[in-house]
């Protein structure tokens, strides 16, 4: 192999390595809630959306063993756009609604935190422990689950889970879709007024 061929082969390998690194970067490296100086913390990325959908769909299916007989709501991290919020609820399944002030009395499933590292993710979700409350009024009681997921280039799916004792993980703040929609309208108004 002459010097010119070696140089061309080296360039091809460099380009291939760069492309592979770029593709892995697209899969994700993020953390929610944000941890200063560690990782990307925007819950609106496509990878984060798919991870949250897979996690919530898994826990809701586990709870109900089939189609939902009545509506439930999902509570997503603050900052999720209203459009993404509504789309995620729809993708999870029928009778799954984005949390709003109008449906805050139905059982709520929460995303508490997530950590994505390439094609692996960990998510903590809360499910309403309705088997304990038996529909009685008052503060809802939740059970947490730590889920491990694999995906990235393949569809995200749960590979491992660990349930926690009921009441050991606190529910995150409620993030209503109506508030997200209002923020989107305000952002659009600011962008329009600035000419952006």
Describe this structure in words.
Helices cover 39% and strands 23% of the residues. The chain is an alpha/beta fold and 196 residues long. It has one domain (28-194): Nuclear Transport Factor 2, Chain: A, CATH 3.10.450.630. The model is unreliable at 12-26 and 185-196 (pLDDT under 50).
Order of helices and strands: HEHEHEEEHEEH
Our Rg estimate from Cα atoms comes to 21 Å
Which regions contain 5 or more consecutive residues with pLDDT less than 50?
A: 12-26, 185-196
Number of individual domains:
1
Question: What is the first-to-last residue Cα distance?
Answer: 55 Å
Q: What best-fitting shape do the alpha-carbon axes yield? A: globular
Number of helices: 5
Q: In percent terms, what proportion of residues is strand?
A: 15-25%
**Structural class computed from helices and strand pairing:** alpha/beta
Named CATH topology: Nuclear Transport Factor 2, Chain: A
DSSP E strands, number: 7
Largest sheet: 7 strands, mixed
CATH architecture: Roll
At the first level of CATH, what is the class? Alpha Beta
How are the elements arranged and paired?
Elements: H1 3-27, E1 29-32, H2 46-64, E2 72-75, H3 82-92, E3 96-98, E4 108-117, E5 120-128, H4 130-133, E6 142-150, E7 157-163, H5 177-194
Parallel strand pairs: 2-3, 2-4
Antiparallel strand pairs: 1-4, 4-5, 5-6, 6-7
Helix pairs in contact: 2-3, 3-5
């Amino acid at each position: 192999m002459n010097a010119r061929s070696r140089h061309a082969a080296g360039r091809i390998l460099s380009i291939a390595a760069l492309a592979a690194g770029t593709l892995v970067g697209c899969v994700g490296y993020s953390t929610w809630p944000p941890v200063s100086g560690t990782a990307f913390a925007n819950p609106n990325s496509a990878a984060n959306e798919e991870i949250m959908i897979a996690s919530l769909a898994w826990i809701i299916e586990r709870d109900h063993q089939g189609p939902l007989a009545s509506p439930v709501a999902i509570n997503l991290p603050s900052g999720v756009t209203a459009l993404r919020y509504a789309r995620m609820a729809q993708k999870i399944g029928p009778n799954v609604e984005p949390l709003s002030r109008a449906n805050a009395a139905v059982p709520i499933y929460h995303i508490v935190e997530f950590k994505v590292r390439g094609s692996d993710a960990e998510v903590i979700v809360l499910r309403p422990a309705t088997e304990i409350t038996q529909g009685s009024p008052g503060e809802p009681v939740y059970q947490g689950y730590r889920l491990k997921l694999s995906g990235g280039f393949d569809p995200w799916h749960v590979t491992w889970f660990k349930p926690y004792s009921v009441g050991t993980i606190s529910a995150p703040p409620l993030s209503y879709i109506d508030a997200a929609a209002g923020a989107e309208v305000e952002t659009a108004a600011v962008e329009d007024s600035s000419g952006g």
